[in-house]
Amino acid sequence: MDNKINKVDLVKAMAEETGMTQKDSKILLDAFLTSVSEALANGDNVKLANFGTFSVRDTAERKARNPRTREEIIVPAGKKPVFKFSKSVREQVKG
Which of 15, 38, 65, 76 is the one with CA 20 to 30 A from 5? Predict the structure, then answer.
């Protein structure tokens, strides 16, 4: 199962679904992605009803190993963006 949809495919699908031009669909998609990125950078969650929630999680400091040298290193604590799909989307995917 190697089906992949990239940004161009998504823009085309949005244009077909809405009747908008691909140019306008790309502008909307870019604005959406920028808005979500900025909200996450500010520490906010973005919840889309019946789809899912974008949020930021804190990661703890941890030990890791360099696979090339086998040297143990410390990975500092940080933050990572995460997305959790809503129950309705998870159920749709299950089939």
Answer: 38
